[in-house]
């Protein structure tokens, strides 16, 4: 009989069965267009070798030219979409645990984004419109440098009443247990974020927000403060000054759902990740990586969140969520773009 014991234990240890659409993300879907270019190309469009900018009028033709002139790779991008894609990769089965909403154009790039989401087994439901083309981000690579030029275009056109409010779409929102939105989306549709955040709060589900970039805190503070009362988990990164201080401040902001304590999680690149729960501040070391193995640190923050969410949606401890976040980021920085091997090796 003894041999049956481990079996019983094994059954007990089996993962919580995840349902489809348990994780919901909404944000700016961008198609990353990556190519190794030459100095003449950078000079022609006035680009620095290593930079991150929003596209201006003078960059418009560049997006067509890069495709014609160089060998390009397409990756489905945009911060939130990257994170839910990584979460789905970490989870593996079932497919479509992750849902994604955002706006694209009815064009070739939009078609590629849909295909890429499908390949990643993410249940993407895009609002498609023809006023603006699909948002793109050109990654112009020269040696170790990459110059990123983002053209939001269609991503900026998401409309609550045209997409989120539709019964079949809202049903997917209601199916979710965990919600994640990057701060970048605050510039697009505050009313959509608030509708989702209030739903999460009223139903004691988990709503997560990322501060994303300094300009969000600086220029969209009012919108951010409207969402904060509903935030259960707040993510941020090393671009924010005095992390412990901010983490503590964020902890003390008013909160609607009193059943959940607000958690603040800040990554700091190769320094440890800081987490605050109430008065408690903890730092978790990241996984070491040899400089020579680092290919591209660009998607690391998105990947960390994706790893974190993959465990959160399975009711794992916050410590386990952070470990998974560190693992995912460590994998992503070894690859160009927010791409990964076929299967994760996370235990």
UniProtKB/TrEMBL annotation:
CDD domains: adenosine_kinase. The keyword Nucleotide-binding applies. Keywords: ATP-binding, Kinase, Magnesium, Nucleotide-binding, Nucleus, Purine salvage, Transferase. It holds the Pfam family PfkB. GO terms for molecular function: adenosine kinase activity; ATP binding. This is Adenosine kinase. Belongs to the carbohydrate kinase PfkB family. Its cofactor is Mg(2+). The active site is at 302 (proton acceptor). One of its GO terms (cellular component) is nucleus. GO terms for biological process: adenosine salvage; AMP salvage; purine nucleobase metabolic process.
